[in-house]
Design brief:
- It comes from Mesorhizobium liriopis.
- This protein is mainly α.
- It has a single domain, classed as Four Helix Bundle (Hemerythrin (Met), subunit A) (Up-down Bundle).
- 71% of the residues lie in helices and 0% in strands.
- It has 6 helices and no strands.
- The radius of gyration is 14 Å and the shape is elongated.
- The two termini are 25 Å apart.
Length: 119
């Protein structure tokens, strides 16, 4: 999460700023907008794949897939999604799948909004 004072230029940037930690994302990408776009694009591709896979009612979610979702979410500062994926990864029983799917699609939408802002 954000280690210091938030960058006021990144506050209140709509849906992306509510779901993604834009300060974290900027630090992760060294404030390089092109690199930020690459990271967001990779996250969007993974979120789309995982979201579709999890939306299938008979699809199981192996721990390694939950681990990958968690890592992808952390890379873009989608802390809520990362926390849900971690709970899913460590669960002995099936957690709330619909909640995880909704969080994936929410983070995907925020990443797409941020990507549009960068264009």
């Amino acid at each position: 999460m954000s280690g210091g004072q938030p960058d006021s230029s990144k506050q209140n940037q709509g849906a992306a700023g509510r779901v993604l930690d834009l300060d974290h994302l900027a630090r992760q990408t060294f404030d390089d907008r092109a690199l930020e776009a690459e990271v967001l694009t990779a996250f969007i591709q993974q979120a789309e794949l995982f979201g579709k896979r999890l939306a299938e009612p008979n699809e199981s979610l192996p721990g390694e897939l939950a681990h990958t979702i968690k890592g992808s979410a952390r890379a873009v500062g989608a802390w809520g999604l990362a926390e849900l994926a971690e709970r899913y990864e460590n669960a002995e029983s099936e957690p709330d799948r619909a909640k995880l799917v909704a969080a994936i699609f929410e983070a995907d939408g925020a990443a797409r909004a941020r990507l549009r802002d960068l264009s």
